[in-house]
Amino acid sequence: MLILNCPYCGVDAEETELAAGGEAHLKRFGPGSSDDEFHDYLFMRENPKGVHFERWRHANGCGKWFHAARCTNTLEVFGTYTAQTSEPPQDIKDAIAAKRPGWTWREFS
Amino acid sequence: MSEPISALNHASYDGIANVRECGLQGMITLRGDLSDKSLAKAVKDATGQNVPGQREALVSGDTGVCWMSPDELLVLVPYAEVETKLAAMVKALGKTHTLAVNVSDARAVFTISGASAREVLGKVAPVDLSSEAFQPGQIRRSRLAQVAGAFWMDDAETFRVVCFRSAADYVFKLLKVAAQPGSEVGVY
Ligand SMILES: [Zn+2]
Asked: Which domains does chain B carry?
């Protein structure tokens, strides 16, 4: 059972209140991008065993989208944070580093 | 004009708690910047209440205001006054970037009352309803089994539950089953 704290309403929401929104921090490639960039943006996803960043929506709750950093291996949650950012905030990165020294994910570490 | 009637017209059930459809309730969804002064004034004029903080429910009977999200409030007024209050609210908000809509007829409201009220609701919502965690003055949006719902407490033994009107029959039957005689769990 996954429990994520919604940063908007402060509720510790259990998984059935939430809707999964896939990988976080995708960089959008739209008109004017190359076919390869567009292809990767549409189809290529991380599938790590370990540290992962995801989008979630508090669907049966305040309705807001937010970000979560967690471990796909242990289901440990490192933290949740606002959707109004294009990269994980420093405190989240620090929390991960404390538990998983040397972690990397896409361009983040 | 036809007479407005609530979804289940005051249907009631007595089990380990009483489950009752409350009848018509005026409800206005208000979206905007909750720190805005004209929004605060509109809420005060309509309900006599301040803008609630995170997950606060400032409600007395059928009048009050609940925090729904960082940019949304649920304003409760008597059903008969909802159009007048909404018009006054829209006027008070003026050009402020907000949205105020009468949603009264899109909703159904129930009370669950009695010593086992926490038990009944606790069976259908994934929420800690112990008296340490949930008290009068708080609102929680969650799910009631398979449909969306929100609830707050009128007093220590009474929940007021809001759902979509289209799901009223489902929610009433759900709460009836949860309140069946002899079905106390003994958790709360
Ligand atoms: Zn939330």
From this structure: 12-178 (3.30.1360.120)
